Amino acid sequence: MSKSTIYDIAKVAGVSPSTVSRALQDHPRIGTETKARIQTLAKSMGYIPSAVAQSLITNKTWTIGIVITTVADPVVAHNIVDGIERVAYDAGYNVFLSNSRNDPQRELAVIETFQRRRVDAIITIASELGKAYSQLDRPIIMVEHQEYGNYHHTVSTDSLGGAIAAVNHLIALGHQRIGYVGAIDRPVSNTERLNGYKTALEQAQIPVLPELISLPNTDNDYERGQMGLAEILTAKPTAIFCYNDRTTMGLMKGCEQLQISIPQHLSIVGFDDIETVSYLRPALTTIRQPRVRMGQIAMQMALDLLAEKIPENCILPVELIVRQTTARI
To answer: What pTM was estimated for this model as a whole?
Structure first.
């Protein structure tokens, strides 16, 4: 059975095809009764509007492009994207999701593809290409952006404050030799978390020791944890704060291999509160980010920009979640 067209509807309704087109677009020049009659008729005849034709008329495709750095990171691939999709769906938008694999050249190719598809807005997660996006002629929202500069509308969490809370928790438990394992492939958030680590120590008048800071040369979180542990152990830490939860998982695996008991011999704090860490044994003490909320706010910012409203940049608060990997020294 072939689909009904506006010409079929026009013939049954006894009006011109242009009148049908305007009525289906809710045009104000079409009378209320005529508009309602045509819309009801179109529905009963099973009329399905052409997305291509509608986009040509409205100059909108009702699509949002999302660029993520990796599908392996549950913070990015699940929670933030889930938040974006919830708001997008309610607003009648579909999303295109593409993985840059943390490769700037691949991300540039993704941008070009989104432009060819004429997406209405682009949301990036953990991107390092702020300057490249500043040249685009459509709304750009950057979630947890990793390049310094005032290029775009941004959504992020309080990495500095979260790191201070994590280290203050360890200090309150009596720890003085606290290590930090960071991530060189996340320059902005790593700098903020490292600065928070240093700030908490300095405020407690505890020396910041270079031998207790490790920035492993890898983009694999699990490897980062194991490498960081091996590097810091010689400095005899009693506690370690890690850049993110997956890094702590690698570090905890290293502790298991070396028969280091957690938290009896070493207290550990992570950052993110991904779902799996509450099921670890011992369960991980960490900093919780409102990840779904980040996605929701990013998508709402995109909708505001498409409605020609100017949203404010947003930094969301985080929360310390105390579980079983930290103990009094």
So the answer is: 0.81
